[in-house]
Description:
The protein is an alpha+beta fold. 28% of the residues lie in helices and 22% in strands. The chain is globular.
Amino acid sequence: xxxxxxxxxxxxxxxxxxxxxxxxxxxxxxxxxxxxxxxxxxxxxxxxxxxxxxxxxxxxxxxxxxxxxxxxxxxxxxxxxxxxxxxxxxxxxxxxxxxxxxxxxxxxxxxxxxxxxxxxxxxxxxxxxxxxxxxxxxxxxxxxxxxxxxxxxxxxxxxxxxxxxxxxxxxxxxxxxxxxxxxxx
Length: 185
């Protein structure tokens, strides 16, 4: 199935995030003070799923992170810390630490959100039909904790032709050097 229904739909998709609810500037100050990756229980480690109540998510995430990842919000274009970010490492889910995207698959899409042409491994993200706002698009959620990450479109570069358009607030970044050190320990 085509991810875009027609040219008119594509135009709406580009403009829609501007009309959709966005994260406010007032929430940004709060974002800097809370930890980003929630500790997991023994049962969650065993099953590799992270399941929490709304109250637990609110306590563990900043207001911005909760809005984006749990309420399916959208940050303002060109406002996210990873939009123009260049680094060697792995982008992980801000809610659970699940490895999502390798920095080598990040590309400049010009859309205002960090974009990747494929996840780090099959099954790390789940595609869900999203019919909100009167059109159909494909939502991307974390396979471990169901956090809303963004959407995927079929206008990306080779080799996949896909553009995973992700909210910066839904991500954390771990440098390759730190990953290699943790693997040795």
